[in-house]
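Subject: sequence -> structure tokens, single chain

Hey, anyone have a minute? Need the predicted structure for the following. Not urgent.
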Amino acid sequence: MRDAVYFTPAARRFVISYLGAVLEHHNTPAKFHARENFIRLWKDSRYDFFTFGSGQKKLLKTYMKHLSAAWNQELDRIKGLLGLDEYERRVAKFVGTIIPGRVDHRAQAKTQVRNSEIRVANPTKRDGLFEISGAKASLDELF
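Reply:
Had a minute. Here:
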């Protein structure tokens, strides 16, 4: 007969939450409720399933460096293949969250500014131009 193993209530909740997250991933991959709950619990918990020593951390860092370079090459290839507009629509929103990548691979902020939304501190308008700190510029040149 095996020796009995005792889990504290907190350890039991941690393991059950982890198993729930794994099952959710396999059974309903479009839902994230159990996985998000596990991550919140894990961040505030003293429990962990994996620990790394200094040699393992160094090896992991080296692998991540190579993987990051490979991801950046792949993102460059996809951007060239899809074109900028299609890449922005389909891929860029995931860079930095699900997919690692450089800042220039992330979605570009697209802002639309109407003239009524422009606020300039103490502008002086003369002949359709705004004078700001001694420099003159049209609205098109400002934005």
